[in-house]
Amino acid sequence: MIKVAVCGANGKMGQEVVKAVNNAEDMSLVAQIDIYNGQFATIKDAKNSVSIDVLVDFTQPDSIYENALYCLNNGIKIVVGTTGLSDIQIEELKKLSEGKKTACLIAPNFSTGAVLMMKFAEMASKYFDNAEIIELHHNQKKDAPSGTAVKTAALMSDGAESYTTGNCTEKETIEGARGANVYNNIHIHSVRMPGYMASQEVLFGSSGQILTIRHDSTNRECYMPGVLLAIRYVEENGGFVYGLDKIM
């Protein structure tokens, strides 16, 4: 049995992970960690009380880096679902994971459909010189742009030298009107509004045509097969993985 701890267990995603682990025949839920009425308030408290094979983190952008550092420095394999890590922080966690020989899997999105959307966008990027990303989430999401949007843009980055080919010289009369500009001029636009859960559109354009690749998540259960896949993977394999697509 894989001994699993869930950090952020009382959050909306954390509660789904708790249910999924409890229903998995090859897993045992040994700790529910949450600063708000959790079985344990911190990872350290849990580690001092129970044996943990894999910790799943769905907490907050401002705490995930320190949580991951603690796990890797203390021999706890970790699956990270919390977004908001910078490229520098991800690289540091990769070095630490490899140095400590403790598995770490970071996934901006655990939905298999969202992963396929990212892969399709990567494939299409070779054929278009113009592209933008629109991501739409509920208004309780604290980081923007989403980790999925950033990962999508990174996957697309080798497809063209610039994704604003042929655009006129622009001047924003209101700062931010064109969104964030990343990875070879891919503009990312973030929408936060009640009624959405998680959606993303990748728009590709060329003369006479538009290609739209879109994925919508309508409930949090859709992420659980990916989370369980990640738990099993880090338990059986060492090393560092960024993106669920690497193990699908």
Give descriptors for this structure.
2 domains, 5-stranded mixed beta sheet, 248 residues, Rossmann fold, alpha/beta, single chain, Dihydrodipicolinate Reductase, domain 2, 6-stranded parallel beta sheet, elongated
Secondary-structure map:
Blueprint: E1 2-7, H1 12-23, E2 27-33, H2 43-47, E3 54-57, H3 64-73, E4 77-80, H4 87-100, E5 104-106, H5 112-124, E6 130-137, H6 147-156, E7 180-182, E8 186-192, E9 198-206, E10 209-217, H7 224-236, E11 240-242
Parallel strand pairs: 1-2, 1-3, 3-4, 4-5, 5-11, 6-8
Antiparallel strand pairs: 6-9, 7-8, 9-10
Helix pairs in contact: 1-7, 3-4, 5-6
Task: Describe the protein.
There is one protein chain. With 248 residues, this protein is α/β, with parallel strands linked by helices. It folds into two domains: 2-106 and 220-246, Rossmann fold, CATH 3.40.50; 112-217, 2-Layer Sandwich (Dihydrodipicolinate Reductase, domain 2), CATH 3.30.360. Helices cover 31% and strands 25% of the residues. Helix 3 (64-73) links the parallel strand 3 (54-57) and strand 4. The longest helix has 14 residues, at 87-100.
Q: Nutshell version of this structure?
A:
The protein is an alpha/beta fold.
- On the 0-100 scale, what is the average pLDDT? 95
Supply the number of helical segments.
7
Strand order of the largest sheet: 2-1-3-4-5-11
**Helix-strand string:** EHEHEHEHEHEHEEEEHE
Overall structural class, as computed from helix and strand content, comes to alpha/beta
CATH superfamily of the largest domain: NAD(P)-binding Rossmann-like Domain
Tell me, what's the shape?
elongated
